[in-house]
Here is the input.
Amino acid sequence: MEVINGEFFMKGCGREDPCCLHSAAEAKELILEAGFLPLFENGAAGFSVEERVPAANWWTGDHEGDPWEWRMILARDPEIVYGKFFDKKAGFISREWFPEFANYRRNGYDFDALWEDELASRRMKRIMDVFGTEESVSEAHTGQAFLSFELKELAGFGKGGEKNFEGVLTDLQMHTYLVMCDFRQKVNRKGQPYGWHIAALEMPETKWGYAHVTSCYHKDPEESLDGIREQAARFFPEADREYLRKALALRRSGR
Here is the structure.
């Protein structure tokens, strides 16, 4: 995406281009094969959904061809998570590759341990307290999902409360402690949905279980980093390595 004279221009491809994605199903296939993929262009050639869809397809409301609609479909998919995982920007990670990201980004820390070692902010703690602990919700998959505006109020970021809710929420996604699991509309007093679709967030342990999310904790975080780098280089060989490193934001929590 480029901004020229205050206007947004999408970087797309032709409909007949071999790399063109035509549906959420095709996008899912690529995400599962590559393991992870940002939604928007980021400077690393080919490493985004944006570059693999005709520019005219965006924000049409067409569930079949609009990638903005795909994000809602894929966020609900049992094999994929969606969130701000790539340099604080949105994208997708597969079930297979999420434990590698969690191991590296968390540096082996569950959130409670991160807090106890004074490596998490008080504002992060306020948000995570709404969800409970990773182990308490995971095995029975009983954790809750909260619409972002609900979470904001419950964590004390409402009017007169804590500041920078969106920034803290993004940090928690970057550290893999939270993911977007759905998009829903608000409901009026008559039970009718209205307005924009709003992101619902949950812990990945709720979706996939604590054992799976932490299944790479036995590895050195550097080993997970090497695997992520090798996978990215294999599937996106034309991507500039510096842009790729920035897009992946390969920085550990606790640093």
